[in-house]
């Protein structure tokens, strides 16, 4: 498949990495997308890299890959030089049925209906408009034999308006956390916090007025099945406190951190992370440093209404202007 690309000029660190990743996605339409390998050059966990990618491109790598395959399939259906099953297999679908469902959801008609409409149009018969492209903010599209992308990264990346997110930089000491590991869909971590509260309460950890609840997420939902996603529900503990049986000790390292305050329902945290890692970080001049991103809860549903919930999002950063550097 032919690609129309240009050499990137002066780009930010993350824009350059995402620009290269976009090209790799476009080159891999005939094979399964290796999301782990895609994130490797950025030296970032896939969980974080894919948020940066989505913030700049408007789609995750997997969403971009799937969309381009479907657009290519829509164009190839009009050529009548391959069976629907062959086109389905080339688009990454193992069965005709799975391809039909995905195609109908994307284009509003089945592959057979798409092919019939293209045949009627070629014969001059009146027919509904034939769509071969799907909506995309980045302007990248595929036809039967090539991928078309904007001539320069500045035309590719999504540039949102002024961000309403208020991000501050802090120099933070190392933090000890007594944590309960959790495996499963991230929205179910509440059960882990309930169990954490029981164990930490019996051990007297919650009697410390400085104790704060923390959530750490380790895996990328794009690359790891929901049932296998790893996270941890934790509570900060002082230096001399003993971590009770049933909990693991986790150390969040000292260093420079970018902090953003999210107000409101926990359901909005995913969007807040997308804006912090996907929009603010790539344009901030900072780089993601070693260490886990985490959420620190200033209150909880037991003592605040949903609208008044306050959650701090912390990202370890490095850069010339980072505190303490």
UniProtKB/TrEMBL annotation:
Gene3D superfamilies, per database record: Homeodomain-like, Regulatory factor, effector binding domain
Record keywords: DNA-binding, Transcription, Transcription regulation
One Pfam family matching this protein: GyrI-like
UniProt domain HTH araC/xylS-type: residue ranges: 19-117
Signal peptide residue numbers: none
UniProt xrefs under SMART domains: AraC_E_bind (SM00871), HTH_ARAC (SM00342)
Protein name listed in UniProt: AraC family transcriptional regulator
């Amino acid at each position: 498949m032919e690609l129309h690309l240009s050499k990137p000029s002066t780009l930010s660190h993350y824009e350059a990495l995402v620009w290269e990743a976009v090209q790799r996605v476009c080159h891999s339409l005939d094979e399964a997308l290796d999301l782990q390998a895609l994130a490797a050059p950025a030296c970032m966990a896939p969980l974080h890299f894919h948020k940066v990618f989505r913030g700049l491109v408007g789609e995750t790598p997997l969403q971009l890959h799937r969309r381009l395959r479907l657009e290519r399939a829509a164009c190839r259906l009009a050529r009548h030089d391959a069976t629907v099953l062959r086109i389905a297999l080339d688009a990454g679908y193992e069965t005709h049925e799975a391809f039909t469902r995905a195609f109908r959801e994307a284009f509003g008609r089945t592959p057979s209906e798409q092919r019939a409409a293209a045949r009627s149009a070629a014969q001059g018969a009146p027919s509904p408009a034939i769509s071969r492209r799907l909506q995309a903010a980045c302007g990248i599209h595929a036809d039967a034999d090539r991928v078309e992308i904007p001539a320069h990264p500045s035309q590719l990346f999504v540039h949102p308006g002024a961000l309403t997110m208020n991000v501050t930089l802090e120099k933070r000491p190392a933090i000890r956390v007594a944590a309960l590991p959790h495996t499963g869909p991230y929205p179910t971590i509440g059960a882990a916090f309930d169990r954490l509260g029981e164990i930490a309460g019996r051990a007297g950890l919650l009697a410390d007025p400085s104790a704060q609840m923390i959530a750490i997420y380790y895996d990328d939902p794009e690359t790891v099945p929901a049932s296998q996603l790893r996270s941890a529900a934790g509570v900060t503990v002082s230096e001399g406190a003993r971590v009770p049986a049933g909990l693991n000790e986790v150390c969040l390292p000292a260093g420079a951190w970018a902090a953003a305050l999210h107000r409101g329902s926990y359901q909005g945290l995913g969007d807040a992370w997308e804006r912090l890692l996907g929009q603010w970080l790539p344009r901030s001049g900072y780089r993601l440093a070693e260490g886990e991103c985490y959420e620190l809860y200033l209150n909880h549903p037991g003592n605040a209404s949903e609208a008044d919930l306050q959650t701090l999002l912390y990202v370890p950063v490095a850069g010339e202007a980072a505190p303490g550097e």
